[in-house]
Design brief:
The protein is an all-alpha fold and 267 residues long. It contains 13 helices and no strands. The chain is globular, with a radius of gyration of 18 Å.
Length: 267
């Protein structure tokens, strides 16, 4: 893999990880059209870690608040003032557990999904965004809680499939569950932290594959690009979520997904 290819894949990761268009789907399709026989799985995970750094930077204060509340919870010093944050923490733990189980169950399907089905998944993501963008809850919920956490975790589990946007499906599920738009966006990206870390730990066994196919320079170039582009795209997306404009991405996902599905079906 050359530095230019690594930078291009890093830019795609940085854009697609946060914008609800599926980073894994775009990376898989980009690799197909760039004729990269095999992009090491750990290289993909390292790009995800780079974008994780962008999440931690943007939400650093919120992460610190939740860590303090969690510490008070385990030490028995949490009070009524922490009620809302406790609900968020419970939801994050529940969602992460469900996603982990589904990720293990769908692992083989993820690794063998053909480009045709990835294209179909892109179109499905577009439909989800189009429908969820029309939701106007009568009374928006400001803290997810256990039940909503399980629902959103199930949605994120489906999001491991290339072409199904993790951020898109979790934000859509949050909106379907009645969460406030700002809370839905924040929860989706906080939920990405354990998801990305978990994937990284599971794929550490691929380190030997990475070592043999990608040198340090392309790896660092891809990671720096993914971090920088990811930070900017996350800031942009948070603004769109608050304005209820996620449906805009359907104008890209549905035509591209359908067109590529037709291309792969006839080729």
């Amino acid at each position: 893999m050359s530095v230019i290819e690594a930078v291009l894949l890093g830019a795609i990761q940085g854009l697609a990880e946060f914008l609800p268009v599926s980073s894994s789907g775009h990376l898989a399709l980009a690799s197909y059209f760039m004729k990269l026989d095999e992009v090491p799985l750990l290289f993909d995970i390292m790009l995800h870690l780079a974008t994780l750094g962008a999440v931690c930077l943007v939400f650093r204060r919120r992460i610190a608040e939740l860590c303090l509340v969690f510490f008070r919870m385990v030490t028995g010093r949490s009070g009524e003032a922490d009620r809302g944050d406790r609900s968020v923490i419970v939801a994050l733990l529940a969602a992460t557990a469900v996603t982990g189980i589904m990720g293990i169950m769908l692992k083989d399907a993820v690794e063998s999904l053909a480009p045709f089905w990835i294209s179909c998944c892109l179109a499905v993501t577009g439909v989800l965004l189009l429908v969820s963008g029309r939701i106007k809850p009568v009374r928006a919920v400001e803290a997810p809680g256990l039940v909503r956490g399980l629902l959103i975790g199930f949605a994120q589990g489906i999001g491991v499939l290339p072409g199904i946007s993790r951020s898109g499906i979790t934000i859509s599920a949050s909106l379907f569950a009645g969460l406030d738009r700002k809370v839905a966006g924040e929860f989706s990206f906080l939920l990405s932290i354990p998801a990305i870390l978990g994937a990284f730990i599971l794929e550490l066994k691929s380190a030997d594959t990475l070592q043999g196919t990608v040198s340090a320079t392309p790896l660092m170039a891809g990671m720096v690009t993914a971090f920088a582009v990811g930070y900017l795209s996350l800031r942009f997306l948070l603004t769109l979520i608050r304005r209820g404009k996620l449906g805009w991405f359907a104008l890209y996902l549905i035509p591209v997904g359908v067109s590529l599905a037709v291309y792969f079906a006839v080729s």
